[in-house]
Design a protein that fits this description.
The chain is mostly helical. It has one domain (about 1-10, about 25-195, about 200-295). The protein has 14 helices and 2 strands, in the order ββαααααααααααααα. It has helices at about 30-55, 60-65, 75-90, 95-100, 120-135, 140-150, 155-160, 160-190, 205-220, 225-235, 240-245, 245-260, 265-290, 290-295; strands at about 1-5, 5. Strand 1 (about 1-5) and strand 2 form a beta hairpin. The protein starts with a strand and ends in an 18-residue tail after the last helix.
Length: about 300
């Protein structure tokens, strides 16, 4: 590979050992070629997002109603609490009566969002259509990202595109569905629980939708973590023992990323799934990472050294 105006040899061990049967041919590109390739991929991504946004525009009222569903319906945790309590009252009537447990169906007071500016709903609809269009164009976006890095890959590594694009799209959608059905209702129900006789909520449309869309993107990206680490492991970039040793770092980074959200419920709702995805990544690398990922990392001994690194 050529980077800038100086030829830089592309080392095979950057992405793993050479494939059997000899070295593969890599595409040589100058620095300007890289910029032109990046420009080409970005233009295609923008066109795909514009088309996705146009397709999603008539769907935005449906998407918005789905986002506002926690304002009209009990959360899934409230429904589970009612079902568990009803089961306990039926199976253990004496004990539940002693404890004062009653199986009351969850009730929620319907809420409406408020807007103050004349064109505020229109701009909110644009934001929703943009994020929905991004989700529709996500396979194209992943494929263009892959094509940008393809010249730096060997032939046996380029085949991973058949897993990267479909599984990456599925993971992004699963992350969004998990957030909308599990996390988002929990956050809203926690917020509405502060209402009382002297305190009522006036949720703003823009703030409500912005908060939801930001977390929607975050959870979609969080669910991409196992696939990304698995591909890096198959390419020889990361190893299983490296992921195992850095569990504390993963906990710390999950907490740091979650700390950007002020309330405690949202912090835990972000940090716990993020770390769970890291553990799932370790499991995926262990099962599907191949022999190179399972091999322990070996320390590099400098030439001329008499012993292992660190010996004096």
């Amino acid at each position: 590979m050529v980077f800038g105006y100086f030829p830089v040899p592309f080392q095979a061990d950057w992405f793993g050992e050479n494939p059997p049967g000899g070295s593969a041919v890599l595409t040589e590109m100058s620095f300007l070629d890289h910029l032109q390739e990046l420009r080409k991929r970005l233009i295609i991504i923008l066109i795909a997002m514009f088309i996705g946004m146009a397709i999603a525009w008539p769907l935005t009222p449906t998407v918005q109603r789905y986002m506002q569903r926690p304002l009209r319906e009990p959360s899934i945790t409230q429904k589970w609490q009612y079902e568990v309590t009803a089961w306990a009252v039926k199976k253990f009537p004496t004990l539940t009566k002693t404890l004062g447990l009653q199986a009351a169906p969850p009730e929620i007071k319907p809420h409406k969002l408020n807007y103050m500016a004349p064109l505020e709903p229109f701009f909110v609809q644009m934001k929703i259509s943009l994020i929905t269009g991004l989700a529709l164009a996500f396979p194209v976006i992943l494929y263009q990202i892959w094509l940008f890095f393809a010249p730096a890959l060997y032939a046996h590594e380029k085949k991973y595109v058949y897993y990267f694009v479909p599984f990456g799209t599925i993971a992004f959608i699963l992350g969004d569905l998990f957030f909308l059905n599990m996390v988002w209702p929990l956050i809203i129900s926690f917020s509405l629980a502060y209402e009382s006789d002297f305190l009522f909520s006036m949720l703003n449309l823009t703030q409500f939708i912005n908060f939801c869309l930001r977390l929607l993107l975050l959870f979609g990206l969080i669910f991409e973590l196992p696939l990304i680490l698995l591909i890096l492991a198959r390419a020889g970039v990361v190893r299983l023992d490296f992921l195992r040793r850095n569990r504390r770092v993963a906990v710390f980074l999950s907490a740091v990323i979650a700390a950007f959200h002020a309330d405690v419920v949202t912090m835990f709702a972000v940090a716990i799934p993020m770390y769970c995805m890291y553990e799932l990544s370790i499991l995926a690398v262990r099962l599907f990472g191949g022999r190179r990922a399972a091999e322990p990392e070996t320390a590099v001994v400098p030439a001329g050294a008499d012993g292992p690194p660190g010996d004096l």
